[in-house]
Write a structure and sequence with these properties.
By secondary structure, the chain is of the alpha+beta class. The chain contains 11 helices and 24 strands. It has helices spanning 8-11, 15-28, 84-101, 135-150, 226-242, 257-269, 274-277, 349-352, 390-395, 446-451, 498-501, and strands at residues 33-49, 52-70, 73-79, 120-123, 157-173, 178-196, 201-206, 249-255, 307-310, 331-336, 339-340, 362-363, 372-373, 377-380, 399-404, 409-411, 417-420, 424-429, 432-437, 440-445, 453-456, 463-472, 477-485, 488-497. Helix 2 (15-28) packs parallel to helix 3 (84-101).
């Protein structure tokens, strides 16, 4: 893995001058806490359909933000102009906001302590900077991958896309921390479609390569075998088109990491966000059944369930050196032996839970958005004692279904009642795979589902999935987050026939 430095064009910004101007102005106006964030977000999106370029778009957002605390009340302001004068004016405007809100504040801010990090620098792990690769070369690779799928019998259409992001931040506060960071992430995707014109229907099959905190090497074979998957998608799609429909009812499931990551995201990741658990997201993103009064007692799942939150996972989308509160990245337990034992929180919420330190979950997706509590990389741990394979788990099932790949999903506002579909479903008979099924969804409550988990696979089955577009807050923000997990065996989960449910 190549070691990279922060790009020189970010380091040549007047970071010291902005720091001095903003923090001096905030202190003079009476702020007991103030921080400056200079935030740059570079993105490029490329999309092809049937080998032809549909769109190539580039964006570059740069700005500064200042937060202050006055009499226990937050104030926030931002500006696109990076000058000392604008930084000072932005700080004074943040103070004005805090003063205006002070009379309305019934919950004074008390920040958890954090060590000071002077001149800290962190860069994520990647080999090839995707922004250093010519756009023509990236289009050519996607066209080549598209052509391999299009050439196969039974494939009528192919879409190919990649979204790449480089995020750079500089953080400084009155305590003395000065932190510069750079991270790169990539989301590649190809999808093949087979059309049945006579029946007026179609089926799709998408690559399972996850979005990941890597560079362009993620699209050329590092961490994923593109040659193998592209060669097999047409045969998988052809089998799916003619597969029999599923019989609904309680069913044993072996769920692949390519599907299970999303269930983790929705039923554990969001449910253990502390701000959600105490009602802060009720007006928009919902609350959580896993409320703080249940901490240490809620039976989330079976004793084989071990779930961690991690801001340090290699190549994780939510991996950082330091969060937007200036807190160092950490790993901690959310569920231990099936019991709820922790939450994700920031410097504001840590004291409210009786903790002396934040676990580093503050993030803003733009210089013009205030940092809020966001999700870490939340992962189900594999079996630490034996390297149980996916085939071993399947061998334990007499009559069931093996679920591969994510697709549509639905979950209620308390993260409790849900249903999920997938890319591919295989019938299990007498411990062996016996062809694909169609029209499958599984449905449960969170605690019933995780309470039905009989076994998890070993380290060799553990994979990192994730998403670029986790939404939260008003105004809305998006964050990228990864979720690792092994294959896992669940007993007696309710399976729906989506065709029947849809009245067909």
């Amino acid at each position: 893995m190549a070691a990279h430095d922060v790009d020189p064009d970010f380091l040549t910004l007047p970071l010291s001058a902005l720091t001095d101007a903003a923090l001096t102005a905030a202190r003079a106006a009476g702020a007991t806490h103030a921080d400056l964030r200079v935030h740059r977000l570079r993105t490029q999106s490329i999309r092809l359909r049937d080998g032809a370029v549909q769109s190539v778009s580039d964006a570059d957002e740069l700005g500064l933000a200042v937060r202050v605390i006055i009499d226990g009340t937050w104030g926030f302001a931002s500006h696109a102009e990076l000058t000392a004068d604008s930084a000072a004016r932005t700080a004074r405007r943040a103070v004005e906001v805090a003063l205006a809100l002070r009379s309305l504040n019934r919950d004074p801010v008390d920040l958890a302590d954090e060590p000071v990090y002077r001149d800290a620098v962190w860069v994520s792990e990647y080999d090839v900077d995707p922004f250093a690769v010519p756009t023509a070369d990236k289009v050519a690779l996607l066209a080549d991958y598209s052509g391999r799928l299009s050439a196969a019998a039974g494939v009528d259409h192919v879409t190919a896309s990649v979204l790449q992001v480089k995020e750079q931040t500089y953080y400084a506060d009155l305590a003395g921390s000065r932190i510069t960071q750079q991270r790169v992430r990539l989301h590649p995707e190809l999808e093949a479609t087979a059309v049945d014109a006579a029946a007026g229907s179609f089926e799709t099959m998408r690559t399972l390569a996850p979005p990941v905190g890597r560079g362009w090497e993620a699209l050329t074979g590092t961490g994923w075998d593109w040659d193998d998957e592209l060669a097999r998608i047409p045969e998988w799609l052809a089998e799916k088109v003619t597969a029999p429909t599923v019989t609904a009812g309680p069913t044993d499931l072996v769920i692949d990491p390519s599907n299970l990551w999303l269930t983790i995201h929705e039923s554990i990741g969001h449910a253990t966000e502390y701000d959600r658990a105490i009602g802060y997201e009720a007006a928009y993103a919902g609350t959580s059944f896993a409320t703080p009064d249940l901490l240490g007692t809620l039976r989330y799942g079976t004793p084989v369930m071990q779930v961690t939150a991690d801001r340090t996972e290699a190549h994780g989308l939510a991996t950082v050196g330091y969060d937007d509160d200036g807190v160092a990245g950490q790993r901690w337990d959310l569920v231990r032996d099936g019991v709820l034992v922790g939450y994700q929180l920031d410097r504001v919420f840590a004291p409210r839970l009786g903790l002396s330190r934040s676990n580093g979950c503050s993030y803003a997706d733009s210089p013009h958005h205030v940092p809020i509590q966001r999700m870490a990389n939340v992962s189900l741990r594999p079996d630490p004692d034996r390297d149980t394979s996916t085939a071993d788990l399947i061998a334990r099932v007499e009559d069931g279904i093996y679920v591969v790949g994510d697709k549509s999903w639905s979950i209620d506002m308390q993260r409790y009642n849900f249903q999920f579909t997938g890319q591919r479903f295989y019938r299990i008979r007498d411990g062996r795979l016996d062809g694909q099924l169609r029209d499958v969804a599984y449905q449960a409550t969170t605690t019933d589902f995780w309470g039905s988990m009989e076994a998890v696979g070993g380290p060799s089955t553990w994979r990192l999935g994730g998403a670029f577009n986790c939404g939260k807050a008003q105004p809305g923000q998006v964050a990228a987050v990864s979720h690792g997990c092994p294959a896992a065996l669940f007993r007696g989960v309710n399976v729906l026939n989506t065709r029947t449910e849809g009245g067909q």
